[in-house]
Design a protein that fits this description.
Helix 4 packs parallel to helix 5. The protein folds into 2 domains: about 260 residues, 2-Layer Sandwich (Heat Shock Protein 90); about 130 residues, Rossmann fold. It is of the alpha/beta class and about 425 residues long. The N terminus and C terminus are likely disordered. The strands form 3 sheets. The chain has a 5-stranded mixed sheet, with helices on one face. Strands 9-8-10-11-12 form a 5-stranded parallel sheet, with helices on both faces. A two-stranded antiparallel ribbon has the order 1-3. A hairpin with a 2-residue loop joins strand 4 and strand 5. The protein contains 12 helices and 12 strands. The chain is elongated, with a radius of gyration of 25 Å.
């Protein structure tokens, strides 16, 4: 059997900046902003690079999700669809701000205009943390693409919330200290373990913490509390302004709902776990984000698989095996029906027999790869023919795997899981 073929990188270009310019906070005297004069350095706090298993776009990448398979207007689960134009425009502005910070700091260092060692170290630290923040947002773009294509899959494991938050808050301590923001962390005694996708939960919590720190003014406080009630667990993050400072605690988190890529991704991760993420402003001095998750999310299908085989008994056995593994199988008995289904519905993978009446499997695979709406669907071809020539043909025309009959079900299921993992999780778990 041939190894699954690597996916081609998915590249998307962000639209030109469209959002209104931000109003930066005034820079303090003697700050890096005073020397650089960039909008981001003028009062923006340094961001932390949280090395927490965040997703990172793989160099191998994956095929671009087909546009025709993406939901329009609303997701299948009833959640609102991504407001692509507005959100990407706001993300473009945020990316440019981060790049300006990095470029401004490095230009001064390269030009030798920062002779003071302590000040140079401060500039490097700002650039480093800004790079980490920017890498998180790039990963959020990849997750948003998976969410829009309804390809976000949970890998549930049993987790303990306390050590997870301990680690994330330790990583946040340095940038919070630079901003003179105090961190306060508390939790109910004996928090229960719960089921969640660890990498995705880290992403959601990291996004919440980063957004909350940005919304906290100088000398404010960030209060984090974890609690449990019956069959649910929650994390509440409050940005607080000290009374002597007055005013509102930085940017309005509620206004970020339609403009923040990080908040959009965190909220959709919560929804994927049957939970919710809410923002609120309890008072003039307090803003809050609260994540609530069930201890055990509902079981979900691992993906939809189109089974194309003109042998009813063989198709039945495949359907049964797929159902036992948690997949949703759909059957087609010939090539034309398979092409019609693949173009009209969303499938995560196709198992395609070579010997079909009328249009054979090779031609079906060729047409799937030629059509933009089906070009990204992984295809495993199966055949009673055991010739190496047929395997070479299958891989040459774009199949991701080839099996000779009789099939080894355990090996087939492992290959299916690998292909779906490569397509759905390579970008979120990182390389």
């Amino acid at each position: 059997m041939a190894e699954p073929k690597p996916r081609q990188p998915d590249t998307e270009q962000a639209p030109d900046e469209q959002a209104n310019p931000k109003q930066p906070r005034p820079a303090s005297k003697g700050s890096p902003a005073e020397a650089v004069g960039s909008s981001d350095l003028s009062g923006q706090p340094a961001r932390a690079e949280l090395e927490t298993g965040r997703p990172a776009v793989s160099s191998a990448g994956e095929r671009k999700p087909a546009a025709a398979r993406q939901p329009s207007g609303a997701q299948a689960n009833g959640a609102p669809a991504l407001p692509t134009a507005d959100l990407l425009a706001a993300s473009s502005e945020e990316f440019r701000d981060s790049l300006q910070t990095i470029r401004g700091a490095l230009e001064l260092l390269v030009a030798g205009k920062v002779p003071d060692q302590d000040k140079a170290g401060q500039f490097l630290k700002i650039a480093y943390r800004e790079t980490g923040y920017l890498s998180h947002r790039v990963s959020d773009l990849h997750l948003a693409a998976l969410i829009e294509a309804d390809r976000l899959r949970l890998k549930l494991t049993t987790l303990s919330l306390e050590p997870l938050l301990d680690h994330l808050l330790q990583e946040l301590a340095a940038p919070a200290s630079d901003q003179e923001v105090s961190l306060e962390w508390d939790h109910d005694p004996g928090l229960p373990n719960f089921q969640a996708d660890e990498a995705l939960l880290r992403t959601a919590l990291t996004n919440m913490l980063e957004l909350s720190l940005r919304a906290t003014p100088l000398q404010g406080s960030l209060q984090v509390r974890a609690a449990s009630q019956q069959d649910r667990i929650s994390v509440r993050i409050e940005c607080r302004t000290r009374p002597k400072n007055g005013g509102t605690a930085g940017p309005d988190l509620r206004a970020a709902d339609g403009q923040s890529l990080a908040l959009y991704v965190a909220r959709r991760i919560a929804q994927a776990h049957d939970g919710k993420l809410e923002s609120s402003v309890p008072s003039r001095e307090v803003q809050a984000l609260e994540l609530t998750l069930p201890l055990q999310p509902k079981a979900r299908r691992r993906g939809r698989v189109l089974v194309v085989d003109d042998n009813p008994q063989a198709a039945f056995l495949l359907e049964y095996a797929l159902q036992e593994e948690g997949y949703e199988p759909v059957k087609a008995m010939n090539g034309p029906d398979a092409l019609k289904l693949a173009r009209g519905e969303r499938f995560d993978l196709i198992i395609l027999d070579v010997l079909l009446p009328g249009i054979d499997g090779f031609e079906v695979c060729h047409r799937l790869r030629a059509a933009p709406e089906t070009a990204s669907i992984p295809v495993i071809m199966v055949s009673a023919k055991a010739r190496e020539q047929d395997q070479s043909t299958a891989l040459r025309i774009g199949a991701d795997g080839y099996f000779s009959k009789p099939l080894g079900m355990a090996e087939l299921m492992a290959t299916i899981a690998d292909l779906l993992e490569a397509g759905d999780s390579r970008g979120r778990h990182g390389d």
